[in-house]
Amino acid sequence: MWDVGLSLDYPPLGFTKPRLKSSLSGCKAACISNCSCRAMFYSNVSRNCFMFSEIGSLRHPNLGSEGYFLSIKVVNGTNYKVLRRHGVDLRSIFIIIVIGIGTLLIVSDLIGYGFWFYREDYHKSLVESTRDEDSEEEDEFEDIITGMPVRYSYNDLQVATRSFSVKLGQGGFGSVYSGVLNDGIKVAVKKLEGIGQGKKEFRAEVSIIGSVHHLHLAKLKGFCADGAHHRLLVYEYMENGSLDKWIFNKNPENRPVDWETRYKIAVGTAKGLAYLHEECDVKIIHCDIKPENVLLDENFNAKVSDFGLVKLMNREQSQVITTLRGTRGYLAPEWITNCTISEKSDVYSYGMVLLEIIGGRKNFNPNETKEKAHFPSYAFKMMEQGRSSEILGSKIISDQQNDETICRSVKVGLWCIQDEISLRPCMSKVVQMLEGLCPVPDPPLPSQSAPRIYSGLFKSDGDKTRMSSWTDSYSSDASVSAVQLSGPR
Q1: Could you say which of 156, 244, 288, 306 is catalytic?
Q2: Is 472 a known active-site residue?
Q3: Which domains does the chain have, with CATH numbers?
Q4: Are the C-beta atoms of 180 and 186 separated by less than 8 Å?
Q5: Which of 53, 108, 364, 413 could serve as a FRET partner for 271 with CA atoms 20 to 30 Å apart?
Q6: According to the UniProt entry, which residue ranges have a biased composition of type Low complexity (predicted)?
Q7: What is the reported pTM?
């Protein structure tokens, strides 16, 4: 027997039962007497003796694992001595074999890693090449579309807005920041949030929005579509900001807006919406008409903004924004009753805005008296009694000669907010009625379910307490109307 040495491990030992338990010498003797035994492993710890007719690769045991003593049977002692005399050491041969096998494994690992690295590098190059081709296609896409707004990089707009440091406002579609372009032109930069479209789809929608030009629509000057997350729109800057700051007296420094200016704003807003609904190549339903989305230039010309943005939102974000619109009181009943949304939904929202322009207040205020809390109902009552001038806010300046215009505007607003969709006029008809180009018949009384619906929009317990006594005074017909308004879910 040739003693190879201690501290060796042979993988099959973990799956083989020991032949016997004995001493080292007893294990050797058992192997010598067994014709099929070519090698034996012995454990000094467990005294287990393993015998094999042939063996493969050996290894050093893991740290903390048991090592085995290996002894290999040779043909006879004479042959071993002859080999030793000729300088042939079987131990050296064994070591050379082990080293050779180890080297072969290392080389094969290096070759495998090299192939994997080459494949990854090739894939990366292929992806970058595809992106370059897509970028070229997108540039060609922009060249084909005439009137495409200017494309800005995210870095360009970051510099223009001084890292988005001056915030002008925030809405359902994102935040708006003040900026100055390299040519000195002041702009408003909107960072869109919740965009659910890819770059090409986004640019296609931007091309539609950018192609819409009207005196009473906010002009889209440019856009940004860098990477997967940066989606920004660049609008012309409006010196007087949004309508809500002027009609609700949010800023004490702002002078009260007289009736002539309010009437001008109301007509301008109606003309902008009429263009979106009836004169665009592609009909655009705004879906978010409210004072915050009516901008005013230095001459108080109305500019409707944020049109066409609903299609850019993902479904979850669009649903959230719809809910938020409802809490502000501009939501048409069909949003709740799952009826088809059409341009008449914008007409309803416009009617609410028109009444707020006239009254200089929100359409529902629980802090007001019972008679005035729901402004549309109060306006209807004053109109019936021929006291239209009393509908104007206390700080609104108006001459007596404007009473007819005020009364006409109130009637138009009440027609716009009818629950029955077919009763609402189209926006072009609204413009004609406001300008006195056609008669305005007396409208029906607005839905009495509105106060109950509004009452659910207040969050504080104090507001709910104030509302309970007010809404309880309504008749059972109001309750029925409220149920009908909710409709099937």
Answers
A1: 288
A2: no
A3: 2-73 (3.50.4.10), 145-237 (3.30.200.20), 243-486 (1.10.510.10)
A4: yes
A5: 364
A6: 468-483
A7: 0.63
